[in-house]
Amino acid sequence: MIRTRPSGSGQRGGISGRLLIAAAVAIFALITYFSTRQTNPVTEEVQNISLTPEQEITLGQQAAPEMAAQYGGLSQSQEPQARVDQIGRAILRGSEAGTAPYPFEFHVLADPQTINAFALPGGQVFITEGLINLLETEGELAGVLSHEIVHVVGRHSAEQIARAQLAEGLTGAAVLATYDPDNPSSQQSAAMAQLVAQAISMKYGRDDELEADRRGVGYMAGAGYDPRAMIGVMQKLDEASQGASPPEFLSTHPDPGRRIEQIESAIAEQFPQGLPEGLKP
Ligand SMILES: [Zn+2]
User: Fold this and answer.
1) Hey, what's the torsion of the CAs at 143, 73, 97, 212, to 10 degrees?
2) When comparing pLDDT for 245 and 183, which is higher?
3) Residues near 133 by beta carbon (within 8 Å), at least 6 away in sequence
4) Distance 84 CA to ligand 1 centre (A)
């Protein structure tokens, strides 16, 4: 006599098998997330990060052209680009950010309408002509650039990617580890395109924004600019947001009133004897 298995047991085994695999993937993602805990050498924050600085640089460089294309490409005006380069370099020379292993590149984007600035991992910093035109002093420009430079050295994108991997079980680090920019396989190209899309649509957390504002205060002063200029930036963004659509820099960097308070308290904390003489506005 032939014994037959009761029907359906195979299917049940299949489901529990898949559940087991899903659980294993989730546990692996958790272990990966927490085993990547490390201290940021520049900011000394303890973070969960699965990318190496080299991988951050590769990702930023891969994503930069696509980011620029979304904002009308690179600006054709020489003057704002030269000014942004000069102020950006001064911030790097005058702060801990200059010791980070990132080849910083500052890009002015041609879009005159959009008021925005952002950073990709590994040192790619962007600011639109629209935002540059809104700003009145070099100190205000230094404030925006300092803020974005903190996002880079704070490795905020890499942190967000680690969180996303935890949620989705994605393996961005594995993609980047095997990615050869000069000779990618089609599978690697597809995986990289996904990572690039993730990097471009990245939203930082509120804590990241506050850290960028607070550390940015010190970076501005180190480059010879009055950190109170950042308060002027917030006020201008707030005014610009009274119109129909708020500036994007504010939609990803919310609540200018609260941020002004935080900036004032960061200045008071970092300069308890008062600000040095002769800072530029
Ligand atoms: Zn920010």
Assistant:
1) 50
2) 183
3) 112
4) 17
Q: How far apart are CA 14 and CA 22, in angstroms?
A: 12
- Tracing tokens 């940015």 back to the chain, one arrives at 216
- Counting every residue, how long is the chain? 281
Ligand 1: centre distance to CA 207 (Å):
10
Residue 110 C-alpha from the chain's centroid: 21
* Centre of ligand 1 from the C-alpha of residue 145, in Å: 10
Q: What is the whole-number distance in angstroms between the Cα of residue 150 and the centre of ligand 1?
A: 8
Q: Is the dihedral of CA 120, 118, 65, 95 positive or negative?
A: negative
Inform me whether the pLDDT recorded for 179 exceeds 90. Answer: no
Distance 244 CA to ligand 1 centre (A): 22
Amino acid identity for residue 255 in this structure? D
Instruction: Read off the amino acid at residue 113.
Output: Q
Question: Using CA of residue 229, residue 234, residue 235, residue 239, what is the dihedral sign?
Answer: positive
Tokens, residue 220: 């501005």
CA 206–ligand 1 middle distance (angstroms): 9
Greatest Cα pair distance in the chain: 99
Q: 27-40: b or e for each residue (b if 16 or more CB lie within 10 Å)?
A: eebeebbeebeeeb
Q: How far is CA 72 from CA 88, 200, 275, in A?
A: 22, 15, 39
**Residue keyed to tokens 């790097």:** 92
Residue with tokens 């001064």: 90
Of the listed ranges 24-33, 81-90, 112-121, 196-205, the least confidently predicted one is: 24-33
Count other C-beta atoms under 10 Å from residue 75's C-beta. Answer: 22
Distance 252 CA to ligand 1 centre (A): 7
What residues does each domain of the chain span? 8-39, 51-270
Cα–Cα distance between 133 and 8 in angstroms, integer? 68
